[in-house]
Amino acid sequence: MSKTRLSERIGRLDYPIRKYNALARSLEEKGEKVIYLNIGDPLKYDFTPPSELVEEACRALREGHHYYSPSEGLKELREAIAFKEKSWNGVQVDPKNVLVTNGVSEGINALYAALVNEGDEVLIPDPSYPLYINFADFYNAKKVFYRTLEEEGWRPDPDDIRRKITDKTRFIVINNPHNPTGAVYPEKTVKEILDIAAEHGLPVVSDEIYDALVFEGSFKSTAAVASEDNVVIGMNGFSKTFLVTGWRLGYIYLRGPEEKIADLRAALLGFLMTRLSAVTPLQVALARFAVKAPKHLEDLKRRLDERRRYTVRRLNEIPGVSLATSPAGAFYAFPRIDVDMDDEEFTKRLLLEEKVFVVYGSGFGPLGARHVRLVFLPPVQQLEEAFVRMERFMRRVAGS
Ligand SMILES: Cc1ncc(COP(=O)(O)O)c(C=O)c1O
């Protein structure tokens, strides 16, 4: 019997963060206690969404918002997003230039679908959040990594960006605060990248999903630093800062001269029409909640910061593990691992032998090699157990 033929493009997808999930589950089925430090989902630990937001969701369901909404998102939510961007980030955006997506994940898919042809190039950070790599592969675009500087808090190197622009480049991606390194970019660096982009007439895609989770330094939104002439495609969402990862809601906003963004808006909307709409009742809830002061953030940041400080201290105590700089934002640490095996092998063995699940750094780009990414989301007690196991593993492999 012949097998169903699959597309070539599907074979090019490889999502490192979930790749070893089945292995972790099989260990659990054998009664092992796996500590999951792989997925950036605060809801898997002891974080919960603001209760007022949950109430708004129940109310929206009771009120009967069960219909499809417009493909660009409910007007009320787009207005609330414009308000949120202004009050959180000082970004002025017209609600008509906001598109609601099923998470930033879908926004990234829409971006590539609308902007790249086969063989086009996209400039992405090395290391990078994997979806920016995955969708380049999926659409047969060429991913061109630009360097970030580990010793300087993983800040992007604008000169490397400049060097790598060709006439095939379609956009420059920045992700600030950054996944997987926790970098928060200096305003000067953001401005330098914007100036290079303007010189070459390229849009800057700025993924700011961790905008409110900054512990050191100061975050400046790309659109707030951009000049009149820049086109900024802002990517943001509710998963992390509103603690609703499972609601699958995010947004894209466009900022720049109308004549430069009109086609872009139409193209993105064209893609979003094919999935009809994002989930309506939860849009209603967020529209009502996002215009209020985000009171839950203070507690969220305080708890995360305690876990971050503990993680940085403990990681640096483990022989062979080092952080050149502390993560300044988001909820990831990206330590260097000095062992005699590659990072994917390291990750697999750490999971099999000590039941600690982290992500191999090379899954995020070439500069991620010899690193791993872990989340500092669990309570300190659980982190402590993970680091005891990791230390035992490091001592064992260093001695072998
Ligand atoms: C940088 C970055 N962008 C986008 C996403 C996707 O987020 P969502 O689809 O939940 O909005 C994530 C999730 O971890 C992320 O870290």
From TrEMBL:
Its cofactor is pyridoxal 5'-phosphate. NCBIfam families: PRK08363.1. Residues 33-386 form the Aminotransferase class I/classII large domain. Belongs to the class-I pyridoxal-phosphate-dependent aminotransferase family. This is Aminotransferase. Signal peptide: none annotated. InterPro entries: Ala_Aminotransferase, Aminotransferase_I/II_large, NHTrfase_class1_PyrdxlP-BS, PyrdxlP-dep_Trfase, PyrdxlP-dep_Trfase_major, PyrdxlP-dep_Trfase_small. PANTHER family: GLUTAMATE-PYRUVATE AMINOTRANSFERASE ALAA. It is an enzyme of class 2 (transferase). Its EC number is 2.6.1.-.
